[in-house]
Structure formats: C-alpha cells, structure tokens
Amino acid sequence: MRIHFKTDYRQDLQLFADWQTFCYYLIAFVAAASAPFWLGEYLLGEMTYVLIWVIAGLGLMILVGHTGQVSLGHGAFLACGAYMQYNLIEAGVPFLIAFPLAGLFAGVIGALAAVPALKMSGIYLAIATLAFGIIVEDVIILLEHWTGGIEGVYISSIMIFGIDFDRYAGGLEPYAVPGHNFYWLCLVVALLATLFYRNLLRSPTGRAFIAIRDSEVSARAMGVNIARYKTLAFGLSCFFTGLAGALLAHFLSAFNYEAFLILISIQMLLMVTIGGLGSIHGAWFGAIIIGMLPVVITIMREEISSAMGLGNFTIPGLDQAVFAAVLIAFIMIEPLGIYGRWLKIRTWFQLFPLAKKDMFKRHKSYLKTERMR
Amino acid sequence: MDPFQLLVGGIANGCIYGLVALGFVLIYKATEAVNFAQGDLMMLGAFVTMTFVNQEWWDFPFIPGFILAMLVMGVFSYLLEFVIIRRLFGQPQFAVVILTIALGFILRFIAGAIWGHDPQSLEFPLAGESFHIGSIVVGYDEAFVILVTAVLTSLLYLFFARTRLGIAMQASSQNQLAAYYMGIPVKRISSLIWALSGMTASVAGVLFAAKGAIDPSTGLLGIKAFAAAVIGGFGSLPGALAGGLIIGIIEPMAQFFAPSGYSQIAPYAVMLLVLILRPNGLFSQVFQKKV
C-alpha cells in the first residue's frame, strides 16, 4: 500500500494523490480521447451515448449519492435541457451560449422543484419526484408550440466556429470515423463536469452536502443551512442533467416525449446505484454498464441464435429482464456497486498478501422506523 | 353523463387502487420497506387466477380458483421475501426500492413469456349484469369490487389492531432490534407480511381483471396506487383506502370536466398538492421524536 506522507499544504490540494494515480488516469484519458481512431462507427456512437449518460449520472450522483435525496424523476430535467436547447438553437442562438443556457434552465427548474421537496424525505420524496416525472411527460405533449407535441422535433446540427459537430459529421478522413467531433465534444463536457464535481466535493459546499446525507440533524447542528444546500444540490444536479439532455437532443437529432419516459428516470437511478452511490467513479462505471449492456446483450443474442441455428429471434422485454437480473445480483452481492468491488480488488492487490476478508465488513445495522423523527 | 354514474365507476376503480396501496402499506408497516413491484404482483395474481378459472386453461369454478390463486400468490411472495428480500436485511430502505423495481421488470418479463403480451380477460361469473339505484346503473362487478374491498380492509384493520401477530408486525416495523429482544421472530414476521401482501395483491388483481382486460404491463398501475398510498399517508391502512378512493374518483371526474390531455395528470397533480401541503400524507403517521 502506498502511504501518502504529506509534507506540504499543496499536497492536500493536488487533484491526484501521486504520480502513479495520475498515470492511470492519463492512460484512461488517452484511450478515451483516441477512441475515434480505433473504434468503429457503431461503437463510437455507443461510446458517445455512454458519455452523455456519464454527465447525467454525475448530476444525479450529486443529488442521490452525495446529498442523499432520492430522485425518481430526473428524466424530466433531461427533457428540460433537451427542449430548451432545441428552442435556443432553432432561434439561432450559437451553441456555446445555448448549451450552458439549456443547463441553466434545467437547473433553475430543479431549484424550484426543490422548494416543495425540502419538506419531504425518503420515500415521499422518491414518489413526489416520480409523479413530477410523469407530469412532465404529459406537459411535453401539451406544450406543442415549444416541444412539437407527440410528433417531436428535429434539431439542427451544432456549429462551433464554423466546424460541424454533428453526430454524423465526417472530417479527418481517412483516420477517424464519422461523429468523432461530437464524441470529443461530449468527452470534454464529461471531463469538465467531472473536474467540477471533484472540486465541489473538496469545497465547503460538497462537505455540507455529505453532512446532509449522513445526518440532517447533525448537519443542522453543525450550522449547515439545510434548505439552502438542498436547493443548491437540486439546482446543480439538474444543471448537469440539463447539459446531458442538451447533448442527448443532438445525439438523437429527432426526438419526442418518448426519449424522456419515466423508465429513463428509473434507469438513471439504477445506473448510479449499480455504479456505486457516493463516488464519482460510480457515475462513470454505472454509465458504462448501462450504455454497454444492451450492446452486449444484442451481440450475445446474435451469437447464440447463430450458434444454435435459431435464426433471428427476439423476446420482448428480454433486455430489461437481463438488466434487472444484473441489478438484483449487484444489490444482493455488492451493495456498494461496481466502485465498491473495484476498491476491494484494488486493496487486495495493494496489501498483498496482508488483505483480510473482513476489512470491508459492514456493521450490523437494524432498522428503525422513519416515522419517528 | 350523470356525475353520480361516474362516481360509482370511480369508487370501484378507487377500491382497486386502494387494495394495491394496502399491499404497499402492509409491507411498509411491518418492514419499513417499499415494494415497487406491488403492481406487478397484482398483475401476476390476476394471471394466476385466470389460469385457474378460465375455460381454455384449467377451468376451475370461480371461488375455489380465486382462493387457490390467492394461496399460490401468498406462497410466491413468501418465497420472494425468503430468497431475495431477506438478503437486504439492515440495508437502507433505498436498496429495497431499487431491488423491487428490478423485480418488477423481471415479473413483467416472466408474465409476458408465459401468457403473452395481448390483453386477456378473466371469466368472471357476474360480468355484464347490473342493477339500478334510482337512475344509476351499478354493475355487479362494481358492487363485488366495493364489497370485497370493504371486507378485506376491515379484516386487515382488525388484524393489525387486535391480534398478537398484527401487533408483533407493528413492533418489528418500529424497531427491529427491540422487537427481536421482545421475542418476536422478526425474520419470519417479515416473510409472513410479504405473503399477506401478495394475497392482497392477488385479490386486487382479480378485482381489476373482473372489470377489464389484463396484460403484463398492467402492473404499471402500481404507480397510481402509489399515489394513493402517499395521499393517505404511507403506513395508514384506512389512509391507503381513502387515498385510493380519492384517486379513483378524481380520474373519471377529470376526464369528464377537464380538457383532454390534462386529465391523466390529475391524480399525480393531486398527489403533489397533498405532499406539498401535508408532506406526510393526509393520515400522517410521522411523530416527532422527543429529545
């Protein structure tokens, strides 16, 4: 195990604990940034999709993982971002201005939604947000003038300084596949969001969020303004989700309310849970699993059907069922998510041969009613 | 259309929502867990009953088939708790929520694989017949729904208020460790409550199928039942029923009076309103702890 012996205050402020950690992330970054050169068009599209989910997942992680407020209606904020982006772009606003504005719009809506949410907790909050998500679904259909109603809308492509960032835009031929510009755009946004998140957690604001998650009563006793920080958490979370929504709008090109069904909200929540609540890595891992699982299932289905000579068979709902089974396995075997498992494996190697099985054993906890507060 | 006529249909629908909500509340009362798969259990119960009762399947008489399906669902839910949910003992409430959402997906998939995705109807002996109260037509199925719900709710209420087992269930909800010290077999209690809730869901499913067709996605009705449970205040049995009735009555009224497109959001809007005004529901079960 590496021991960090700090001799300087600047070491506390470093983003990476040491040069080894920095190297790992550098390798991951290089691999991600060069993906358009070694991935096919289909897989690159899937990777772009994953990156969009990463941004949305980071947003939800602030709320669920670090502030402890469960939201089952985040698809609504995805929709806010997407439709705001559409309206701004179609009004001729340049992308670099429209994009933050779309996020900001979702953030403001989120902060407004936080006002009634302040009084709720636990299951009531989850259900209230679920209802909010369902209502927004219908509101999208009703606001036909802005959202195109049931038929949906078609969004124009992104132009930044004359460069086409469309999903299918080429360039750099013959080295990279179409869509690389959009991929890089998503990558940059995801990295900036991660960086912001990382710094947020090291700031008083982030510590206040965590204090609220761990115990609202103690947080209040420590002088944390619960209402203010909860609203801020909602706002920030929805800001990120709105940004993801704006990118999703461009990714889908043509979309309607079906892109933001309540199932999407649930999927987002499952994503951060599988990844590992309360860690930035968790948002990334979760997004990768969610984005890649359908691809893997499709490939496996093709493999199996061709191996057994079944032809092209489909079972409706199979994808979701497999996904759900994976999720159940995770919750039962590894409640801390992929990041938790990753920590265990890493610690085992770092301490080898001194790792003990009980190092990560949880304290036995017994349930007490929420109805006594 | 006579508003009172709408009221009858609304009350009958509301009873079904109320019964599903009762299932939520039962589990919540005893184990503090929220079962998002309750609607899917209801769907499963309806399909199992259909398998027993319908002619093209096993063609049992209605009442024995109904009771048999209830028992099957009870055993199924017991095993569900025993095999899966119990592993989450002591984990945060949120984990169970996620788990049951995933379970719902799987149940829907299984039902779709066995019974297909087309809407099917239960052969209900009283279907299509009706009687009149003044100018209002009341279907026997609607009367049946209301009657069964009333009986079941009062039975459950008495069960929780009077019997040893019911009180043990409440105790294990309030503090598992303390209940365990008092000699209550907390684990078995939580399995039993799931069985009870599965049976309630089965009844709700039959009542739902008696009034219309069922398909695997019927379980999504659970979300509306959720709204009902929340309006009533999670953890209150009469509250769940009241919430169900409110939702059930609002729905047809909104369809009748509100412009089209706005009506389907009415139940959720009402629920949000209740939550904003009374964050713990109408029949609040939250007590301030004294320090």
Describe the overall structure:
The complex is a heterodimer of chains A (373) and B (291). Chain A is mainly alpha-helical and 373 residues long. Chain A has one domain: Orthogonal Bundle (ABC transporter involved in vitamin B12 uptake, BtuC), CATH 1.10.3470. Chain A has 16 helices and four strands. Chain A has helices at 9-13, 19-33, 35-38, 41-66, 75-90, 95-117, 122-142, 144-147, 180-202, 204-214, 216-221, 226-252, 262-275, 280-308, 318-333, 337-351; strands at residues 153-154, 159-160, 163-164, 254-255. In chain A, helix 4 packs across helix 14 and helix 6 (95-117) crosses helix 12 (226-252). In chain A, 42% of the residues are buried. The model of chain A has no long low-confidence stretch (mean pLDDT 84). By secondary structure, chain B is mainly alpha-helical. In chain B, 69% of the residues lie in helices and 4% in strands. In chain B, the strands form two sheets. In chain B, strands 1-4 form a two-stranded antiparallel sheet. Chain B has a two-stranded antiparallel sheet with strand order 2-3. In chain B, helix 1 (3-31) packs antiparallel against helix 8 (186-211), helix 3 runs antiparallel to helix 8 (186-211) and helix 5 (140-162) packs antiparallel against helix 8 (186-211). The longest helix of chain B has 29 residues, at 3-31. Chain B is globular and about 60 Å long. Chains A and B meet through helix 7, helix 13 and helix 15 of A and helix 4, helix 7, helix 9 and helix 11 of B.
